[in-house]
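To: structure desk
From: M.T.
Subject: fold request, one chain
Message: Could you run this one when you get a chance? Sequence is below, nothing fancy, just the single chain.
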Amino acid sequence: MIFVDSSVWIDYFNGRQSWQTNRLDNLLPNVPIIIGDLILTEILQGFRSDDDFETVKSYLSAFPFREMGSYPVAVQSAQNYRILRKKGITVRKTIDVIIGTFCILEGLLLLHDDRDFNPMVSHLSLKVLTPE
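Reply: Done. Structure tokens follow.
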């Protein structure tokens, strides 16, 4: 199963081409994609049009959904942030630490376009999709 970060979904819905959006387009009909509550919020909050909001909300409701904000995820996210800080690495957005930690705990591959995940790959064993 694949977890797709909002950085990719937002580009995808805005029609921006990248290897990540192309990969998402290829994965959609063939591989189960998980949607998390935090990702859903980040995607939907950007739509100005009510019609676009409703269309995308309906589209994304077809994917398996997971709540990400559990107690174990919160505690491990704080630990992971602290591990990175001790190595001199500061992740810019707490939500990215939560997303990365969720993927690690759930054994999900992450498709992203956000440099905040890079130290989690090298120091926390986050598994990510890479260009083919």
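Reply (cont.): The domain at 2-124 is CATH 3.40.50.1010 (Rossmann fold). Let me know if you need anything else for the meeting.
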